[in-house]
Amino acid sequence: MADMNMIKSLNSALSIALKQDPNVVIFGEDVGFFGGVFRVTEGLQKEYGPHRVFDSPLAEGGIAAIAMGMGLNGLRPVAEIQFADYIFPAYDQIVNEIAKLRHRSGGEFSSPVTIRTPAGGGIKGGHHHSQSPEAQFTHTPGLKVVYCSNPYNAKGLLLASIECNDPVIFFEPKRCYRGPFYGDPHNVPTWNGHPDADVPEDHYIVPLEQARIVREGSACTVIAYGTMVHVAEQAIKDSGIDCELIDLQTLVPWDRDTVVNSVKKTGRCVIVHEAPKTSGFGAEMSASVQERCFYHLEAPIQRVTGWDTPFPHTTEWDYLPSPQRIAEAIKKTQEE
Amino acid sequence: MTERLTATTAPYTIGIPPFRPGEEADFGGAFKEQPGDLWRPDPATCTSDDTAPHARGLLRVLNDKGEAKGEWDPKLDASELIQGLEYMMRLRIFDDRMIKMQRTGKLSFYMRSFGEEAVAIAQTMALENQDWIFPSYRQPGAQFVRGRDMVSMICHCIGNTEDNVRGRQMPVHYTYKEGRFISISSPVGTQFSQAVGVAMASAYQEKDEVCISWLGDGTSAQGDYHYALNFASTFKPPVILNVVNNQWAISTHANLATGGRTFAERGLAYDIPSFRVDGNDFLALYSITKWARDRASAGMGPTHIEVYTYRAGAHSSSDDPSAYRPNDEASCWPGGDPIQRLKEHLMHIGEWDEEKHEALAQKIDDEVMVAYKEACEFGDLASGPYPPASTIFTEVYETVPWHIQEQREELGK
Predict the structure, then answer these.
(1) By C-alpha distance, which of A36, A197, A189 is closest to A118?
(2) pTM for this one?
(3) Do B369 and B388 share a domain, yes or no?
(4) CA distance B274 to B305
(5) Quick one: B154 and B300 in the same domain?
(6) Least CA distance to B162: which residue of chain A?
(7) How confident is the model over A235-284, as pLDDT tens digits?
(8) What pLDDT score was predicted for residue B15?
(9) Residue B240 contacts A, CB cutoff 8 Å
(10) Does A205 fall in a domain?
(11) CATH number for position A320
């Protein structure tokens, strides 16, 4: 075991993937010699060679396209889109091509592409370095959508994603690369000493399609992913209410049993994400929880999300769900 | 090089097609460019600069008398030429039969390769069997070269129980893995940049495999075209990138689609050897593709080819070209008809005659009818049977996840 931040643990996952499978190749903007703008691929080119870890031209659509081509011809490409905000030039290639190849070819072709992309706010990135576009991919059959939240699950989920024969969109909450974020921009800890930063150096998997119960509780189920897991954890602490916190980890296919069993137990549910509310993944969760747990619900389901506006620059703390907003939502579920 | 026709109007310049309905289509008779005009550089050492004349000129082998001339003559055996003719005739007869089926409601949709039969057939014949084919919808003819059975192709077009893609795609969106013919997709141009990835994977695995892809003049406006050229230029994988300039993108003439000069010339800016080739000249197409393969195989990377041809038919069964171009425009095309030209060449060298031609056409027509009837035994469009509804839910992922399984159970099939 070693104390790793999320950058180090993702780097460790990529290094293991390169080592164990000669067909793994990694590419994207600035990922080669420089090691990526967030340093996630640092040192990999030096260790594994420039044909396995390389800088691509600055064209997300081209990156996704060559990933699909490589994947259908025997490789296991891991592409980086530098910011999730810049994934949209690749949207056609991902949605119409990568996601549909297996189905449309009657299973004759498939391409096990993993697309890693840093997402989410909290770094003063304004509306084009802060978005969390997961719902634009959860709405696309054929993709698996993963969202890690800490160094331990980042490494295990990334290895599981790379080893998965289906295409995976892998979101990394960039706010949490170097430390968890509890909603207070003036008090930002590092991962040092955090239990989830205790990461095995060897290969391990955090299985896709499984949520993680961060803390058990009986009064309310709080569902979150990415940075919001930590903000929700703080909110639960602040509220003094005995909540069960679920980190979804995989959004598609999400972990039905963990979610449903929890809500049936608590009878209350709060869903948190930083993406906009309308048609956000919380809408899917809310509808599904209602369909499956209606007769166990004691209160309306609450959603705490980013606003239905572009993501702001200087006022981002009023945009992102705060511990206060989440705590209020939790309290609201107790009133009914 | 052809000049693009434009009308200078305020506030923009708007391209104009050479002719509109009611006008006389007159391309000025035969091509001015002749076989022998352009030298054949060494594929292993050629630079993109060497091909500047080739990108602006027109590479031809067959002259207007049906003679093969110049150093680009691939000098194929008569048997290979006859095989090429047979594939092209098969494709045209197959297409004609399928469009009749579509007109009588037996297929939902169809797209012919009419006038462009030489493109995929000559080019695929010039490749090796291990090479990857990444087609657009106008290259199904490559499957004949790779040995696909017509019954299987028709079953796909009907979408019946033997459709290998299980009724999931519109007709003509073939997949044929056995022939390394990668699944055709409706979004135009996406395959072009994917083909670069396929070729990079071949190079990575140190396999002598080349990937060939095509898109149209209209599609060359897409980002994917430029991604493909730029990535091909950057990584130099073994890929052959063809722009099939058939003059028309549905109703949009090439003159309205770009203000550039030849499509081939664009490749020069990417430092990729680039050629403009007579797309109705079977021998020229074969020869340039063989050249490009030799170059790729020598580790020299991509070749960019403008296939200069004419879409003699409608874009698809849903299109009516009489609304936007003269009906006789195809017959005025200086490049003539690819089947007729190869036939004349074979007759010129004493290997073919009208009698043989008629007999072959009849034989193919019979085979197509037999194949169609056999395909219908697995279900026709009107009455099925179709693939089971359960195929909606399979192969979305490697295994069926719980949420899709639940939805399948909800459908109850």
Answers:
(1) A36
(2) 0.97
(3) no
(4) 6
(5) yes
(6) A106
(7) 999 999 999 999 999 999 999 999 999 999 999 999 999 999 999 999 99
(8) 87
(9) no
(10) no
(11) 3.40.50.920
Q: Give the number of A-B residue pairs with CB atoms closer than 8 Å.
A: 151
> Is B28 among the domain residues?
no
In a domain, A206, yes or no: no
Q: Give the strand pairing for A144-147 and A168-173.
A: parallel
Assess whether A191 and A217 both reside in one domain. Answer: no
Mean pLDDT per 10-residue run, chain B (413 residues)? Answer: 73 90 92 96 98 98 97 98 98 97 94 98 98 98 98 97 97 98 96 98 98 97 97 98 97 90 96 98 98 98 98 95 95 96 98 98 98 96 94 98 98 94
Q: What angle do CA B257, B258, B260 make, to 5 degrees?
A: 160
Q: What is the ipTM of this complex?
A: 0.96
Q: Give residue B344's Cα distance to chain centre.
A: 22
Task: Dump pLDDT digits (tens) for A179-209.
Answer: 999 999 999 999 999 999 999 999 999 999 9
Beta carbons of A313 and A300 less than 8 angstroms apart: no
Residues of A in contact with B165 (CB under 8 A): 104-106, 108
* B409 touching chain A per CB within 8 A: no
**Beta carbons of B197 and A105 less than 8 Å apart:** no
Q: Which domain holds residue A132?
A: 2-199
Which CATH number is A150's domain given?
3.40.50.970
Q: Do B371 and B392 reside in the same domain of the chain?
A: no
Q: How many domains does chain A have?
A: 2
A62 min Cα distance to partner chain B (Å): 5
- Inter-chain touch B194–A97, beta carbons under 8 Å: yes
Q: Smallest CA–CA separation between A325 and chain B, in Å?
A: 31
Closest Cα in chain B, distance from residue A185 (Å): 38
Number of domains in chain B: 2
Same domain, A144 and A80: yes
Burial class of A129 by CB neighbour count within 10 A (0 to 12, 13 to 18, 19+): buried
> Both B388 and B301 in a single domain?
no
What's the CATH code of the domain at B106? 3.40.50.970
B175 touches chain A (CB under 8 A): yes
**B266 and B409 both lie in a single domain:** no
* Domain match, A6 and A29 both: yes
Q: Give yes or no for B241 touching A (CB within 8 A).
A: no
**Active-site residue identified among A51, A103, A127, A129:** A129
Closest by Cα among B282, B278, B313 to B98: B313
Query: Where among A177, A199, A221 does a domain terminate?
Result: A199
Per-residue model confidence (pLDDT) at position A331 = 98
What count of residues does chain B have? 413
Half-sphere exposure of A253 (CA within 13 A, CB side): 19
Residues paired with residue A269 on neighbouring β-strands, in sequence order: A221
Alpha carbons B406 and A292: distance in angstroms, whole number: 12
Residue A128: active-site member: no
Residues 209-268 of A with CB under 8 A from B: 209, 252-254, 256
Please indicate, yes or no, whether residues B349 and B235 belong to a single structural domain of this protein. yes
User: Closest Cα of chain A to B70: distance in Å?
Assistant: 37
CA geometry: angle B116, B120, B123, nearest 5 deg:
120
For chain B, how big is the Rg over CA atoms in Å? Answer: 22
Q: Does B200 touch chain A (CB under 8 A)?
A: yes
Please say whether the beta carbons of B395 and A103 come within 8 A.
yes
B175 contacts B133 by C-beta, under 8 angstroms: no
A258 is a domain residue: yes
B120, B90 contact by CB (below 8 A) = no
Q: Is A189 on the interface with B (CB under 8 A)?
A: no
Residue A204 lies in a domain: no
User: Which of A304, A307, A316, A325 is closest to A123 using CA atoms?
Assistant: A316
Domain coverage including residue B54: 44-382
| Interface residue A62 vs chain B (CB under 8 A) | yes
B228 and B344 both lie in a single domain: yes
> Two tokens at B253?
């003439």
Same domain? For B222 and B307 the reply is: yes
